[in-house]
Design brief:
This protein is α+β, with helices and mostly antiparallel strands. The protein has helices at 2-20, 26-40, 51-67, 88-95, 157-169, 177-184, 190-195, 201-224, 231-238, 243-258, 263-270, 273-281, 287-290, 294-304, 307-334, 341-352, and strands at residues 76-78, 81-83, 100-106, 112-125, 128-139, 146-149, 152-156. The strands form two sheets. It has a five-stranded mixed β-sheet.
């Protein structure tokens, strides 16, 4: 029964990959295809496959995706029961006692994503359920390491390992000062880790464990941040694939990082300088604009151990970000037709232009 269930989930994963491939840049798509190839063939993140084999596999994936155009989602059958792929709750009530966890949600571009893996741990934090997955039995192209779906948070160890290794192996990372500080916290030098990852597994696994907790705290911050709850869905539906949506999503993530439940608060509480440095090393594109206070505050922490100053910086940044969210919500509430060009122009002039976006 389990084998049949895995086949059904994998079918939907292929459909999700086919539908979501177009949302990535060419570089982003190739990176994710490489990760998916490694997962399908049981390779570790640092094991590099034969280039010709990967190219042949990618060509086969593209042919498969073309053949799946307009194909329907596969219902998931378990015994006498039948479930739609998005029915996470009922499916997990069957799987969790068996040590498995199923995930479904919306990822980049509001495209469906699915995965199935071995359950490492289930946590309860207030109203939130947190499922930590280890080895995965089914996954799609997306491979997001952590995902918040309402009151349910997923953290995926295997996906995180692929993500972090690819960031470490990126030549652009070689001279990142924040990355050097982060790795030094684990007794690592990047060149040594890349040259012989097997010899540094204890340190690498410690880094992965710390970053999994940091990722979970980001998702908790997102789940409990209400300041954009009305505005963000309106922005996504009215201005999809625009600078306005990109900025609004960046604002959502910055709020999740900075609020009292999120990653930054957690790192200050635990005095985790290495994870704080890694957060700065791999800031997404808009973070330096939305959280410009972080880098100077980090310098004070690194030089003087002044965590209290960082906490004060976090609170000030959060107040500013929530003020922005409140202003955006008010603008949308008062607008005569949210999708009008006038409202979009106001958003761009009031919020994007000062950031240089």
């Amino acid at each position: 029964m389990l084998r049949g269930f895995i086949r059904q989930v994998r079918w939907n994963c292929r459909l999700a990959s086919a539908g979501g491939a177009g949302t990535y840049s060419l570089c982003g798509l190739l990176l994710r295809l490489r990760q998916l190839y490694k997962w399908e063939h049981g390779l570790k993140p640092w094991q590099e496959p034969d280039a010709d084999a990967v190219l042949a596999w990618v060509a086969e994936q593209e042919r498969l995706w073309d053949s799946l155009e307009d194909a329907p989602w596969q219902p998931l059958y378990w015994g006498a029961g039948s479930f739609e792929p998005q029915e996470v709750g009922p499916i997990n009530r069957l799987l969790l006692p068996m040590g498995l966890a199923y995930g479904a949600g919306l990822s980049r571009g509001l495209k469906p994503t699915f995965f199935l893996g071995e359950l490492v741990e289930a946590r309860k934090q207030g109203e939130l359920d947190i499922l930590i997955l280890g080895r995965e039995l089914a996954r799609d192209l997306d491979g997001t390491p952590a995902l918040c779906q309402g009151s349910l948070i997923y953290a995926r160890q295997e996906a995180l390992a692929f993500y972090i290794w690819d960031r470490l192996a990126d030549p652009v990372a070689q001279n990142n000062k924040f990355l050097k500080i982060a790795l030094a916290g684990y007794g690592l030098a990047l060149k040594d880790l890349l040259r012989d990852p097997e010899a540094h597994q204890e340190q690498f696994q410690a880094l992965l464990a710390a970053e999994l907790e940091a990722a979970i705290r980001h998702e908790i911050g997102e789940a409990r941040e209400s300041s954009l709850r009305l505005a963000l869905p309106a922005i996504i539906s009215s201005y999809p694939q625009t600078r306005v949506e990109h900025w609004a999503r960046g604002l959502k993530d910055a709020l999740a990082e900075a609020n009292e439940f999120g990653r930054l608060s957690y790192l200050i509480e635990t005095r985790n300088l290495a994870s704080l440095a890694l957060m700065l090393a791999w800031r997404p594109g808009l973070y330096p604009l939305l959280l410009p206070e972080l880098a100077p505050a980090f310098a004070r922490v690194a030089a003087q151990g002044d965590w209290q100053a960082l906490e004060e910086t976090r609170q000030q940044a959060l107040a500013r970000l929530r003020q922005t969210a409140a202003g955006l919500t008010a603008l949308l509430d008062g607008g005569n037709g949210i999708s009008s060009p006038q409202i979009r122009q106001q958003i761009e002039e009031q919020y994007l232009a000062p950031l240089g976006i």
